[in-house]
Amino acid sequence: MGLSTTEILVIVLLVLVLFGTKKIPELARSLGRASYEYKKAKEDLVNEAKEMTEAGEKAAEKEAEKEADKK
User: Fold this and answer.
1) Which of 7, 9, 40, 69 is least enclosed, having the fewest CB within 10 Å?
2) Could you give phi then psi for residue 47, rounded to 5 degrees?
3) Is the pLDDT of residue 70 over 90?
4) What is residue 2's DSSP assignment?
5) CA nearest neighbour of 24 among 13, 8, 35, 37
6) Contact yes or no for 19/27 (Cβ under 8 A)
7) What span, in angstroms and rounded, lies between the C-alpha atoms of 45 and 60?
8) Which distant-in-sequence residues (6+ apart) come within 8 Å of 7 by Cβ?
9) Which pLDDT band, with edges at 50, 70 and 90, does 65 fall under?
10) What is the end-to-end Cα distance of the chain in Å, rounded?
């Protein structure tokens, strides 16, 4: 379900009419920054989740070792 050449051309023309040629570079930069920030935040969340999982696993291992030592 892709866009045809005609549809892309119509979208580009609409963007030019709505925003003008001077605003388009600003919009592109803003979209680029937003995309970068989104990817950075997503990566940070993934790393934090991994760290929390590893910390939980280590705590569980220590608890299991304590239980084994008691027996």
Assistant:
1) 69
2) -65, -40
3) no
4) P
5) 13
6) yes
7) 22
8) none
9) confident
10) 63
Cβ contact 2:11 at 8 Å: no
Token digits of residue 9: 């051309």
Please report, for residues 51, 53, 58, the alpha-carbon distance to residue 44 in angstroms, rounded to integers and kept in the order given. 11, 14, 21
Q: Which of 1, 35, 3, 33 is nearest to 12 (CA)?
A: 3
Query: Token match 């045809």: residue?
Result: 4
Per-residue H/E/C for 5-32 = HHHHHHHHHHHHHHHHHHHHHHHHHHHH
Does the pTM surpass 0.85? The reply is: no
